[in-house]
């Protein structure tokens, strides 16, 4: 039951009361000044006192003072049991596993039928459980311990359920937990905590965390940083960490531990090839290591080239070649190798080759020895025949189908004019070449309907602004004629007037795929004109560079330009840990795949079978919560629509995961929490009393009582009499 509290009923509250009080006080001062001339001091005092009392009485009446009291009653509160369901609860203890200790405690509590608690299991999330049979069905499996999230959830629920006490059963394997982050509220439930394993410190060496460079590069040193710790008797033993790659022991180091038994090691390595590289970090397990599962962790490096390698081969110097070459040279992310063909191998010379300034085109060196080292190959107005390249064209085709990129740019030596019809190059191009022919005249390229979102041509934030930008760009001049467009290819830009024999508009820019690689055909050699603003317009220059930057990045599979992308909430998980997949899916025209059925699968296939089937929303977004595979290794989560894979992401499953990394019991934060709420902390389960002794009462509001002592008739009558007496006295003594 609380004490009386007073409130002001006057409009405006304390502000109005202050203003009114100052005004009435000023009125009283005027009254005092008016009676200073009174010869009789006694009369002067009586008049001043009566005036002050009258003004005070009126002031108190105007304030409408109200006294309020809220009453409560103490009732038996409910009890909530919050049980840790994380994998660390399966670890060994002095009398069996931690899980066995919890089973024994729950069995004892079930014998006390005076309490029937509400039960919640927590780990990665919080979920309700049934009290009856809880011990038999208790199988800890979660990959995380989130104590703060669990407590806040139960305390918020407890307001409605009148929970008087919360009993938290956990091993405390949550190094991020802080007592001050729990939302206790003004009248929190009493929190007790049973710290399982608190009376049984472990002997353990562990790899706490692994931090690797997100992206590594071939031939460039990369770093893997490893944090380790040792507890119990193993703090005095040497802690050796080994680095393994593809079943080979690469390095071994001994950690120097601080006074808390922690240390950090840094491994430096140099990847030798692109792709994914899985490294294992291993602590050879000691005979008395009670948790050998946390001795083995992994690091996954995505190895690429530090810079994209581009091969640009031009048939002859031109403005288009000059501008594109200049752009690629200025791009710090591109390593450009370019050739202007000014001398063919068959050209007759009277001087020895080593005395010539113009060397023959090194076809064998480029297309036999080093072709695979390039990320993109560009033929710009290039005719292969004079350079004896017929035998190398199939190699370019194979390079693309294995995952390379190829771009052909038009001109009088490209496409049909370059005699590519019927060659291996035509087989990978997204267009059918046909008979020679070059269309003359100027025109402004038009974005194809429905493809304005494609990143190569998306020069504006939305399709309408993209089309407006393309209409404002400077006009092109000339275009190579082609016979048609291959199936599954996409025409991004087309001629506004010229048409093919079948009636379709003449394609200017066509993109497609060949095997695992990407290809593009640019049927004009005048994109350099976009480098300049057109007809009093500010459009140009930046659009030219954006166009070619997007072209190169799309051809080389830049992840940020993929139409469909998925990601996981973390890079590494424990066995069977909670895995959250989110993504944004668009079709090959970059339109959102809204309300689309998507199948998520693990590769390699896990014993658990299919991961999930979800549906995207109106914007093509998806989110799903899955369970990671139950076997360690490197996996991909693959999204597929109608049995076609459209996006994938890599993650690691470890024997221990983060859940088993920090196992040293640290009761300090839990002790602080229970002290704030008047609860008790138990280190181990041996001394825990029956559940009924941990119950607590809760307060229930019984109602409000209010009084207005200065608004009753007696006070009003006294105020009127006081004012009347003041008036009578002033009249009798000759004052008005």
Task: Write a brief structural summary.
With 736 residues, the chain is α/β, with parallel strands linked by helices.
Q: If you had to describe this structure to a student in words, what would you say it looks like?
A:
The protein is an alpha/beta fold and 736 residues long. The protein has 5 domains: 5-72 and 705-732, no CATH class; 78-197 and 665-695, von Willebrand factor, type A domain (Rossmann fold, 3-Layer(aba) Sandwich); 204-304, Immunoglobulins (Immunoglobulin-like, Sandwich); 308-560, Class I glutamine amidotransferase (GATase) domain (Rossmann fold), CATH 3.40.50.880; 562-660, Immunoglobulin-like (Sandwich). Helices cover 22% and strands 33% of the residues. The strands form 10 sheets. An 8-stranded mixed β-sheet has the order 19-18-20-21-29-28-27-24, with helices on both faces. A 6-stranded mixed β-sheet has the order 7-6-3-8-9-38. A 5-stranded mixed β-sheet has the order 11-17-16-13-14, with no helix packed on it. Strand 33 and strand 34 form a beta hairpin. Helix 2 runs antiparallel to helix 12.
Q: What is the rounded Rg?
A: 41 Å
Classify the helix fraction into a percent range.
Answer: 10-25%
Which word captures the global form? flat
Query: How far is the first residue's CA from the last residue's CA?
Result: 52 Å
Mean pLDDT: 85
What is the C-level CATH assignment of the largest domain? Alpha Beta
Largest sheet: 8 strands, mixed
């Amino acid at each position: 039951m609380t004490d009386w509290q007073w409130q002001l009923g006057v409009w405006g509250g304390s502000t109005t009361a202050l203003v009114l009080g100052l005004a009435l006080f000023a009125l009283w001062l005027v009254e005092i000044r008016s009676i200073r001339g009174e010869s009789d001091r006694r009369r002067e005092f009586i008049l001043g006192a009566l005036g002050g009392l009258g003004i005070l009485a009126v002031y108190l009446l105007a304030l409408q003072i109200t006294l309020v009291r809220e009453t409560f009653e103490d009732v038996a509160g409910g009890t909530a049991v919050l049980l840790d369901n994380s994998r660390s609860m399966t670890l060994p203890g002095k009398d069996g596993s931690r899980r066995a200790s919890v089973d024994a405690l729950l069995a004892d509590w079930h014998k006390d039928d005076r309490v029937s608690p509400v039960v919640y299991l927590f780990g990665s999330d919080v979920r309700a459980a049934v009290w009856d049979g809880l011990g038999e069905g208790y199988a800890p499996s979660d990959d995380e311990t989130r104590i703060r999230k669990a407590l806040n959830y139960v305390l918020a629920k407890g307001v409605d359920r009148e929970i008087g006490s919360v009993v938290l059963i956990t091993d405390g394997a949550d190094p991020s937990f802080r007592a001050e982050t729990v939302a206790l509220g003004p009248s929190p439930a009493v929190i007790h905590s049973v710290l399982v394993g608190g009376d049984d410190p472990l002997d353990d060496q562990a790899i706490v965390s692994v931090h690797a460079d997100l992206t590594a590069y071939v031939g460039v040193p990369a770093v893997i940083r490893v944090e380790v710790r040792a507890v119990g008797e193993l703090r005095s033993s040497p802690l050796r960490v080994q680095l393994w790659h593809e079943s080979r022991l690469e390095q071994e180091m001994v950690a120097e531990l601080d006074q808390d038994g922690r240390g950090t090691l840094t491994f430096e390595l140099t990847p030798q090839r692109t792709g994914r590289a899985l490294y294992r970090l291993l602590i050879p397990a000691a005979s008395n290591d009670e948790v050998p599962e946390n001795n083995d962790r992994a690091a996954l490096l995505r190895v690429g080239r530090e810079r994209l390698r581009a091969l640009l081969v031009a048939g002859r110097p031109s403005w288009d070649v000059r501008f594109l070459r200049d752009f690629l040279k200025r791009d710090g992310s591109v390593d450009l190798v370019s050739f202007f063909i000014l001398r063919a191998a068959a050209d007759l010379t009277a001087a020895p080759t080593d005395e010539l300034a113009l060397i023959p085109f090194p076809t064998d060196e480029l297309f036999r020895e080093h072709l695979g080292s390039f990320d993109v190959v560009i033929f710009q107005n290039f005719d292969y025949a004079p350079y004896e390249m017929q035998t190398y064209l199939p190699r370019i085709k194979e390079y693309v189908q294995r995952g390379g990129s190829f771009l052909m740019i038009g001109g009088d030596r490209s496409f049909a004019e370059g005699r590519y019809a019927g060659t291996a190059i035509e087989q990978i191009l997204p267009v059918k070449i046909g008979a020679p022919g070059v269309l003359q005249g100027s025109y402004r390229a038009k974005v194809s309907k429905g493809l304005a979102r494609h990143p190569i041509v998306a020069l504006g934030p939305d399709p309408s602004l993209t089309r407006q930008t393309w209409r404002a760009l400077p006009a092109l001049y000339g275009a190579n004629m082609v016979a048609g467009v291959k199936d599954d290819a996409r025409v991004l830009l087309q001629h506004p007037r010229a048409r093919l024999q079948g009636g379709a508009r003449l394609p200017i820019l066509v993109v497609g795929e060949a095997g695992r690689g990407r290809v593009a055909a640019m049927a004009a050699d005048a994109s350099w004109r976009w480098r300049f603003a057109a007809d009093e317009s500010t459009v140009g220059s930046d659009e030219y560079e954006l166009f070619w930057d997007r072209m190169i990045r799309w051809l080389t599979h830049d992840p940020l330009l993929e139409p469909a992308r998925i990601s996981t909430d973390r890079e590494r998980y424990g066995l069977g840990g909670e895995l959250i997949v989110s993504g944004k899916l668009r079709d090959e025209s970059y339109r959102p795949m809204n309300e689309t059925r998507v199948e998520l699968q693990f590769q390699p296939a896990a014993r658990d079978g299919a991961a999930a089937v979800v549906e995207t929303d109106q914007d093509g977004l998806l989110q799903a919560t899955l369970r990671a595979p139950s076997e360690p290794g490197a996996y991909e989560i693959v999204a597929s629509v109608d049995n076609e894979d459209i996006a994938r992401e890599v993650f690691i499953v470890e024997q221990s995961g983060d859940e088993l990394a920090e196992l040293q019991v640290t009761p300090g934060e839990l002790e602080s929490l229970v002290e704030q709420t008047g609860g008790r902390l138990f280190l181990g389960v041996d001394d825990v009393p029956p559940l009924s002794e941990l119950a607590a009462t809760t307060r229930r509001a019984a109602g409000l009582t209010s009084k207005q002592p200065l608004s009753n008739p007696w006070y009003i009558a006294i105020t009127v009499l006081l004012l009347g007496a003041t008036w009578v006295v002033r009249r009798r003594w000759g004052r008005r």
